Amino acid sequence: MGRAVTVATCALNQWALDFEGNLERIFRSIDIAKSQGARYRLGPELEICGYGCSDHYYESDTLLHSFQVLANLLESPATQDIICDVGMPVLHRNVRYNCRVIFLNKKILLIRPKISLANAGNYRELRWFTPWNKARHVEEYFLPRIIQEVTGQETVPFGDAVLATKDTCLGAEICEELWAPNSPHIEMGLDGVEIFTNSSGSHHVLRKAHTRVDLVNSATAKNGGIYILANQKGCDGDRLYYDGCAMISMNGETVAQGSQFSLDDVEVLVATLDLEDVRSYRAEISSRNLAASKVDPYPRVKVNFALSCSDDVAVPTCMPIQWRHHSPEEEISLGPACWLWDYLRRSKQAGFLLPLSGGIDSSATACIVYSMCHQVCLAVKDGNADVLADARKIVNDETYVPEDPREFCKRIFTTCYMASENSSQDTCNRAKLLAEQIGSYHINLNIDTAVKAIVGIFSMVTGRTPRFCVYGGSSRENLALQNVQARVRMVLAYLFAQLTLWTRGMPGGLLVLGSANVDESLRGYLTKYDCSSADINPIGGISKTDLKNFIQYCIENFQLTALRSIMSAPPTAELEPLVDGQVAQTDEADMGMTYAELSIYGKLRKIAKAGPYSMFCKLINMWKEICTPREVASKVKHFFRMYSVNRHKMTTLTPSYHAENYSPDDNRFDLRPFLYNTTWSWQFRCIDKQVNAL
Hints:
The protein is an alpha/beta fold. The protein contains 24 helices and 20 strands. Helix 11 packs across helix 13 (405-412), helix 22 packs across helix 23 and helix 23 runs antiparallel to helix 24 (681-693). Its EC number is 6.3.5.1. Keywords: ATP-binding, Ligase, NAD, Nucleotide-binding.
């Protein structure tokens, strides 16, 4: 009597349109699953072509190459005697669907299209795919000839069905369907499905992992069953980092946990579980059994195969474990670091260049690169041959072995302090000391010559010389002189990124890193085309508050004592003249709001969907102990004026690691106008009426 089933799930670092690499990683996962006795293997969503293909899904080439990869999988001996569940786009009756293709021994058992498409935030699946709206309905799918030649099948079932093996019943969900209020696993479980599978393309957001884990465990807590979740991992060519967390749960408890952040391209989880535990768990839930007696049945595809062995009495089964969650500081240390590693190795560049100002933001960015170097050394120490091969390509040395993070950092990371006459010696010293402690190749330079030359050209043409406010200039002059400095730094950053390695006799170029945080972007507290303009930005989706906590984490865990003075210094752009050799300009005074307030504004604007009036109504209660309604009104108006005046800057925002749900990223996450009526006359008048009434 078969009771113990052995199943496998995985997290794969797939890359959009990298069909060859994706196929190789799928094969590796199947090999690992089979070597550990698994009889069923689940992979991530759209793993064959990679999840992030975007408008490439419209192309017939994407469909063609996906079927070519599927043909390779079907005809390979590696896929024999194991049910393989892979993801790819499929065109059925001229409609594109996001599908699971489930096959066994060169025969396709079922093509299961996605029912609930992800279409909010970063996701636009309805742009490329159509949901399958025919519940419990199956049609014939006519296979392309390239597949017919391998399987000998002309048609296969396509639709909302489940698999009935000799010993159990399996039903599939695809990513968003787990998050939907009417998840398919509810009805499937009532219809006797014992094993639920979910292939995901779920990205990392700070403090989100527990939500996914809770959803998986709750899926089987009420109804019993085994739930298997696979997920994409890594950067597949966009702003998102897919954070793995493959898992297997039974009867509401986790039995196998995959890593959330890792440099392993292929991670496989295998668990052996007792089906009788599911049946006995369900037996005493009378409400479930009453509902099950009335459920509409799913079409069942019969499979002459078992996930268990006939003689399995002595086979050990997995026991529940406690899920270990990372702290937000650990997430910042690991997630963006893994994203940077993927971007670096896949872009085939030789490292990074960072304008290091000695402030919190650029220092946090430097620490993330150092964390990346630390992760690379750990992976190599643990025997990760892929990471070692990539590291050798990056440094152009076939014998190199990264063992010390500081030494590896010296090879691939250049930091540059760009001083001006408005820079203090304190920030210069802080940048230099941090560079020494993380091991980066550090450059000190002065931009005054370039700034004076540019201002000199303007003066020569116009006959006027702009001055800072402290020297009697206007606010317009003051801002323009600050912007010149900031933009010169961007030009120099790219020049040094292209040629620094050339001067050192080394091949390749460097990726320029930006370091504007999410709050500054929201407020528009940055110069358009300054050092916030870079190739990529690992902290662009992280708040100032979280970055400060991350800096403290680095002091304690990486022993970077240089960060103590950086933490204690007030944030400053250092673009205005010093007073008695000391910085007089501070970020919060310039912005007219604190970073803590900015985080609140950001969450209310995006997550709570609050316009000016709604934000005011919420804040008069939130801040009733510290602000009068009139003060709250003034703050809200100031924020919306500054936000709308500067919104145009979001159109040129450097691609940033997505870490917060209140990101103002204009690319596809936060779609809004960039030309506003910045008086907000109607909205502000509503606020004023409410203030007067109060």
